[in-house]
Amino acid sequence: MTAAIHELMDFDEVLEKFDPVMGLEVHVELATETKMFSTSSAHFGAEPNSNVDPVSLGLPGALPVVNAKGVEWAIKIGLALNCTIAESSRFARKNYFYPDQPKGYQISQYDEPIAYNGYLDIVLDDGTEWRVEIERSHMEEDTGKLTHVGGQSGRIHGATTSLVDCNRAGVPLIEIVTKPIEGAGARAPEIARAYVTALRELVAALGVSDARMDQGSMRVDSNLSLRPIGQEEFGTRTETKNINSLKSVEQAVRYEMMRQAAAIVNGEEIVQETRHYQELDGSTRKGRPKESAEDYRYFNDPDLPPVIAPKEWVEEIRATLPELPWIRRARIQAEWGLGDAEMRDLVNVGALNAIIDTVEEGATPDEARAWWGNYIAAKARETDTELSAMPITPAHVARVIALVKEGKLTTKLGRQAVDGVLAGEGDVDEVIAARGLEVVRDDGAIEAAVDEALAANPGIVEKYRAGNTKVTGAIVGAVMKATRGKADPAQVNKLIAEKLA
Ligand code: ADP
Ligand code: MG
């Protein structure tokens, strides 16, 4: 444990004495094919140092060329965040040395960002809305990645070797910076989580990033300061880095509130510094003192011309914006007449988008909910996979639903068809053909099986004729067995009733 309990102030006590001010900086890696200023692949997971080129390695004389897709997607994000899009913006050099950045500077944007002055309306757990104001959303490039070997849990401290992988160097990055969030009080931690959640959902819906916090394609730094209640002037902030889950975003803010409050009442001065979030115990640990903007010696990058975004182009991009996730959710909830709790369940199992898409493929909302929310969700849990990552599409599920409705599959056979698709045996019709799943429609074969089952179970026939019509389960079971599960139970029941009438 880095901090003993007495070094933290009780959360409620913090709120009696202090007012938190928070600022969130979120980095989003764009899922473009190539890097921001060169033609190497920008994809994650390749062999170390295989996605590199003279530009991303910073070799002398190599010149950057701007990735148009990267600019388009930066504008798309800016528009979705209700920002003003600059008709002309600039790239600047942020100068600092680090081994994962061979050029000695990072290309970023400084005083002329491509998007600024926006906002994102988020919904908190109790349903109230909160507007997070956006200062800027600018383009930059990612750095490489260092792997420290020989120390504890991959940290540089105590390491014997450090490895540099430049695959990520130059991958397009968007940095979204909020204005100071004031007046949040006790809700500051919740707002931080809800904001990052909404942002993640937003960029995923825009199709510009996979926004995976676990893989580093979405990264959050949280700035926090406290000021005594009633004081207008902001206190000194710390900036917590290394936050890699939504839960941790909330905890990092909460922890800093409790830590800073305890330090202030102890007479310690808060220094502007970066801190590192500790996944193990939810604390933050002192990092380096924070550089100020002057230390970076920003200047316009002479290798790159201004980025010009004509109004017509911006409007074209605006027209491609999809329905925003929370607006889509509200619309669906109203259209399908779902209660808040039901809606939350769907969102929580991660099934909502799949269900909506399945309905768009022709299923009814109830059918789509039943298949995704029950059978496929259970399979996902069994294999510890996120529902959205299951290898089955809404079109597959809609096809199964249609075949069940037409009576060509029973629910049970439909599940087997789903199993086949999940096992990679092909699409629904291919699985049905290969596994021989279609319902037996041949009345003759079913009738013969019913006759046989009745003849083999005279006791049941007798009970039935004596008025106990609930005893037919064993007969149906025998018919199902004889037809290897392919008879339609409704048809079997009807035949039994006819024969025994
Ligand atoms: P830096 O380059 O130092 O990271 P940025 O301007 O990129 O600075 O981001 C700072 C973030 O912290 C912004 O979200 C800003 O709103 C917020 N912020 C600025 N001052 C304070 C403060 N005193 N307390 C809390 N947050 C602050
Ligand atoms: Mg910053």
UniProtKB/TrEMBL annotation:
Domain Asn/Gln amidotransferase stretches: 353-500
Major enzyme class: ligase
PROSITE patterns, per database record: GATB
Region (Disordered): 277-297
E.C. no: 6.3.5.-
GO MF term set: asparaginyl-tRNA synthase (glutamine-hydrolyzing) activity; ATP binding; glutaminyl-tRNA synthase (glutamine-hydrolyzing) activity
Reactions this protein catalyses: L-aspartyl-tRNA(Asn) + L-glutamine + ATP + H2O = L-asparaginyl-tRNA(Asn) + L-glutamate + ADP + phosphate + 2 H(+); L-glutamyl-tRNA(Gln) + L-glutamine + ATP + H2O = L-glutaminyl-tRNA(Gln) + L-glutamate + ADP + phosphate + H(+)
Family, similarity comment: Belongs to the GatB/GatE family. GatB subfamily.
Subunit (UniProt): Heterotrimer of A, B and C subunits.
Protein name: Aspartyl/glutamyl-tRNA(Asn/Gln) amidotransferase subunit B
Gene this chain is encoded by: gatB
